[in-house]
Design goal:
Helix content: 55-70%
Structural class: mainly alpha
Largest sheet: 2 strands, antiparallel
Oligomer: single chain
Radius of gyration: 19 Å
Length: 219
């Protein structure tokens, strides 16, 4: 952790803020990729509204699950963010929200890395199983691109001194596992998967509720 922090983090606070903001932009771009796939490609171009809805609910389920475990772990572990050692001991920045708020002690594990790699995993899973871009090698393009962008987000979290290497590594592993596991465990691993682009013979919909998710279907 110390060696990677020394090698990757931006030394000055202004640079830290730029890197932190850039990580937010990268995460927004990844989320927009899911919106493009679900709403524009699947719903508008393929005219598969039911499939687009189900994909969106799968995305929401995976992101909610991954984020819930991440938030619970961060709260229980209470690891101090690396910037705390640099700016929170003395000086004017020691009185800012970054130092006085609870967010200072939510370093392990990285929420940005978790979300970014969950989205990247979802993108790969959907494109592996569905011919969203017509099928074939072209389906690998959004998968590879989203994984690279997620890696960039994780690196920027270290450059901004928000996280240690083990924080983003754990977030990347957990996010990738969640992004692949949710679609496959509940949909793609079954021969009777309801996603319409695969030509399935039943219609199943995931519906969010306050206490979880329900599954409704017509067989």
């Amino acid at each position: 952790d110390e060696a990677s922090r020394d090698g990757i983090r931006v030394a000055d606070r202004e640079g830290n803020r730029w890197a932190r903001d850039a990580s937010d932009v990268g995460l927004v771009l990844l989320l927009n990729q899911r919106l493009v796939d679900d709403l524009i490609v699947t719903w508008w171009i393929h005219d598969k509204g039911s499939t687009a809805w189900q994909m969106s609910m799968i995305d929401l389920q995976a992101l909610t699950f991954a984020a819930s475990i991440n938030s619970l772990t961060a709260g229980l572990v209470g690891r101090e963010r690396p910037y705390g050692r640099a700016i929170c001991q003395e000086g004017p920045e020691a009185l800012t929200n970054d130092c006085l708020g609870n967010n200072r002690y939510r370093s392990y594990f990285s929420g940005h890395a978790t979300a970014a790699f969950t989205v990247a995993g979802l993108t790969c899973a959907h494109h592996i199983e569905l011919p969203l871009y017509g099928g074939g090698p072209v389906e690998a393009v959004p998968c590879v691109t989203s994984m690279l962008l997620a890696g960039g987000v994780a690196t920027l979290r270290m450059a901004s001194d928000q996280h240690y290497f083990t924080d983003v590594l754990t977030g990347a592993a957990w996010g990738t596992a969640s992004g692949f596991a949710i679609p496959y465990l509940f949909h793609y691993m079954h021969d009777d998967s309801p996603l319409a682009l695969r030509g399935a013979g039943m219609d199943v919909v995931l519906l969010p509720r306050l206490d979880g998710v329900t599954v409704e279907g017509a067989f």
